[in-house]
Design goal:
Strand order of the largest sheet: 1-2-3-4-5-7-6
Strand content: 25-35%
Distance between the termini: 25 Å
Structural class: alpha+beta
CATH topology of one domain: Aminopeptidase
Number of helices: 5
Helix content: 25-40%
CATH architecture of one domain: 3-Layer(aba) Sandwich
Order of helices and strands: EHHHEEEHEHEE
CATH superfamily of one domain: Gcn5-related N-acetyltransferase (GNAT)
Number of strands: 7
Length: 162
């Protein structure tokens, strides 16, 4: 059974490790500089969660049998629109339907806060096909494709009404 726990229940570095391991398969497609930039973002996100309770409240660790297997988050700074952030499951736990459960939990939390319009974006590369399918199956509709200013890579943006 999958449960969702606050980041404070885990040792420092857990979020960064889960994100790093979840994205490891894309590493060969990135330059060393791009991989460092990505992993620096993971570290920075972990620090933001540790320093800002409002961000920590919008972040959770997905846990299976007491073992952390993923991270879910959303941006609490825009009250009129929910922006989904990281939503990952470790490769070793994929294929069990666990990707849908954190997404449902994020949507439940947003709705409980009175947020009824939600946006998420993901890459357009093959690595992100399961994320794309997950968002579509949850009812998200593609709204645009764009090139990310930081990564210079293709992104797909989705939105939905709750």
């Amino acid at each position: 059974m999958l449960i969702f726990a606050p980041p404070s229940d885990f040792a420092p570095g857990t979020i960064e490790r889960l994100l790093r391991e979840s994205y490891e398969a894309i590493r060969p497609k990135l330059s060393q500089k791009e991989w460092k930039k990505l992993t620096d973002q993971f570290r920075d996100f972990e620090q933001e969660v540790a320093l800002h309770p409002e961000i920590a409240r919008c972040t959770f660790i997905s846990v299976e049998d007491g073992i952390p297997i993923g991270v879910g988050s959303y941006d609490p700074r825009k009250s009129e629109m929910g922006i989904i952030g990281d939503n990952v499951i470790l490769p070793s736990a994929r294929g069990k339907g666990y990707g849908k459960l954190p997404l449902k939990e994020i949507l439940r939390q947003l709705k409980a806060k009175g947020v009824y319009h939600v946006r998420v974006s993901t890459g357009d590369q093959p690595f992100f096909l399961s994320a794309q399918a997950n968002y579509k199956s949850a009812g998200f509709k593609e709204t645009r494709r764009f090139v990310d200013d930081i990564w210079k890579s293709g992104q797909i943006e989705y939105e939905m009404e709750l």
